[in-house]
Amino acid sequence: MTMDDYRGPFDPQFEVGMLSRRALAVLGREYQLAAHLQDRAGIPQVLARYGAAAMNEIAIAEWMGASPIYTQRMQRALNFHGDDVATIFKGMQFDVGAPHGFLDFRFRILADGSGEFWLPYCGALMDVEPMGERFVVGMCHHIEDPTFDATAVATNPRARMRPIHRPPRVPADREPHCHWRVRIEPGEPAVQETALTTKVRQSRLARLELEPRAPTVEPGGWADYSGPFDPELQLEDLAHVALITVCDEFCAQGHLLVRAFMMAIAERWGDAAAAEIAAQQWVGIAGVAAERVAAAMGIAGDDLDAIAKLLQLHPSFHPRAYVDFHVERAGDAVRCWIGDCTALAEGDPYSWFALLGPEPHRALETMAQAVNRRARCRPLTVPGARWAWAIAIDPNAEPAPDPPEVGLTKISHGARFHFAPRRPLRA
Questions:
Q1: What total of structural domains would you count in the chain?
Q2: pTM of the model
């Protein structure tokens, strides 16, 4: 028996795998978008401190550092392999850099084996166009040129992505927003991984093996993506067990991006700057993702049960094979804790989890306050836990406003984007 949402009572034994295929597809898109919007929370902090050129450098390093790794993880997870353009496009369909619909990628394989993709709508462009041509060129030229090739190199080091046209848009309402050609160029030199990619590969997260899943509890869908490339793929096309894996991998992609982001900052300005900016990044996306996930999963109300259910689903604490996170109700509080786990064993300061300590992180309180503005967190001792916290609702407290980091992240169109199917669902 599966659940189409989480409107029922809080279940301390809840797992994402208890959701139906339909619900997992909805949640998967939210996880994909949350990892994408991390940049809207983090990159502006770099811009404010170090300027536009440094912002572009960090964005390039971050995506080049993480995307080849998570693209290959997804290839293994969904059992699709090859060195052709179709395999590159399959990977792009499962990349948090291209949330379905928010970046509305369309694909075509041509007779000569090359391919094209174009975007009738690009939410990332909608975010930067109001900032002026300098920022559009920064994203659509300076950042995309190296990072698109880095995505392709995960499949074939001689793949090249080149624009047919791209912004700035002339005329101003030109559609599609951009159009690209992808070819395998046998005579071109192989693109090499960056040193940062190699460094990120050494992390426990990059090498994480997800726990084997039980046989599917709901029939239908593709168990993997070993079949032909489908330019009209939607997450609903996947089988139940594949959707659980995809949700886990989307969250892993987000954490890999955090690692690359923090390492790139630390190389330039030191570990203290990386920790400070990453803390602000986590707060910003924590609140936006909390609001979106709660709405998508039907978590209503502002009581402790709603807070507990949200924490069980928040992408910050997935995949569970990486983060040993627990939630329970106890009297007038929600208790949550993290046990010894891979996320706490990286041995370096380059993750959100390295920012944790006895005092509740602002990101955790921001998640709870997305449900109830009077929620407050305090430290807790739980046997066997590395870090533990209690969350209670203080009826006498002043309602907390959105932290500035959340307000900054909400400038993005992604914070209020509504996913809609492009075609009827398949049986």
A1: 2
A2: 0.97
